[in-house]
From TrEMBL:
Protein name, entry field: Laccase
Localization, UniProt: Secreted, Extracellular space, Apoplast
GO cellular component terms, semicolon-separated: apoplast
SUPFAM superfamilies, per the entry: Cupredoxins (SSF49503)
Cofactor(s) annotated in UniProt: Cu cation
Species of origin: Salvia splendens
Gene3D superfamilies: Cupredoxins - blue copper proteins (2.60.40.420)
Pfam families for this protein: Cu-oxidase, Cu-oxidase_2, Cu-oxidase_3
Cofactor binding notes: Binds 4 Cu cations per monomer.
GO biological process, one term: lignin catabolic process
Amino acid sequence: GITRHYPFNVQLHNVTRLCKTKTILTVNGKFPGAPVVAREGDRVVINVTNHVSNNVSFHWHGIRQLLSGWADGPAYVTQCPIQTGQSYAYNFSITGQRGTLWWHAHISWLRATLHGPLIILPFKNTSYPFPKPHKEVPIIFGEWFNADTEAVISQALKTGGGPNVSDAYTINGLPGPLYNCSANETFKLRVRPGKTYLLRMINAALNDELFFKISNHTFTVVEADAVYVKPFETDIIVIAPGQTTNVLLKTKTNPSATTFYMAASPYFTGQGTFDNTTVAGILQYKLPHKTSSTTPLKIQPLPPFNATSVVANFSSKFRSLASPANVPQTVDKKFLFTVGLGSNPCPKNKTCQGPNGSMFAASMNNVSFTNPTTVALLQTYFSGRNNGVYTTDFPASPLVPFNYTGMPPNNTRVSNGTKTVVLPFNTTVEVVLQDTSILGAESHPLHLHGYNFYVVGQGFGNFDPRKDPAKFNLVDPVERNTIGVPSGGWAAIRFRADNPGVWFMHCHFEVHLSWGLKMAWIVLDGELPGQKLPPPPADLPTC
Ligand code: C2O
């Protein structure tokens, strides 16, 4: 492979959306950010320079970062933030991966505007396991706020209440014609008849899973989270924040009209408010002859916002292309992690806007994770001097088991801490991620850094350790980095801890991340030379 250099200058830029001009953080003045493109086997060096007053850090979502955990990026987990005027070069190689991933800021809510595609092409002279597409097009879904997103989250954290919701969804940064004065800001995909297009879809929205459809067209899904899947046909896509999905779109040879709508709207089962709007874009045919047909555009209806059955049906179709896939057949360590909301008491002399006057929190196994503030976990771990920054007692299962998905149980209180799980090198791990109905059942897109995992099982209700493992797929389960844990249900994942470092695992809803739905794995070095995390690069930021 070769080395590819990308300068990332974090700078302010004015953009106008929904009739309002706003100053946003961008990489190199672009919104959304430009793609980082590389081939499997290449080394990528991204030199970030911070020209704004916010602290920043960047994550290469889905990149395995084998022995390069220092380049992973979550603030206070693998690095201190890059401060104003500072630079840091993220340096990693791409091993054993090809497909669509993405990059985004990983501190506070800055990823709202700091994000872009990360496209890994197969090795030279290696083709896709599907016919070569005529063209490849990134489709980034986002969420637009008229307000400053940093103000939105700091207000929510101050009052303990839920944050204000977004004002629009976007496709490649554009809200489209269904919003006020946005008709000129509509994404148009220009296509020729009878051709195949590879759509590289990324959900970069902060807090919403989305349904996506192109009227009168169907898709062939070929890849998820940069892993090939057994192709399947669908007319609807479900994509959670953090996830990426590659689909083939075969255009019609004789379309009945020159333009068709594409549209995305939210899937939401939680409590409280959400942005229940629809972003539309246009699929525009370039036809050799002039068609007089200006058939009025019609959006085929998207599923209702709470259509959990559509989501379950869609996610059940994913299978690894490889059969058998390399899924661990035996497990060294088993975990059961509840994922859900909770609350912290309101400080004295304050009124709070969370549930029953409390402050919203979110947790795994009733532990709400607190980020360190003066040093990154990975630095602490590597130096061998913990100084009380973290503990290694993150519970392997809920301390007091309860009816997770029953009527709201009386245990909404969380405890706060920086708790981790330590795994010896090469441990095979199974984690059952169990949604809870504490403050309402809700789907949670759980993301693991530094690994892909196999989704060996999913179901509704409480996971049953006596019956459910018999139904696990240990042959060709889908391999991903982000899984939508079913609303009121569970998902079981397996991975082999073969990458030493400190690896974040969290809900990819930004508000849940802010509320503490996160934890970290510490994977120890192995015995052999190629199994040890090298020392930190000299330019690693300090706090
Ligand atoms: Cu895409 Cu830790 O996140």
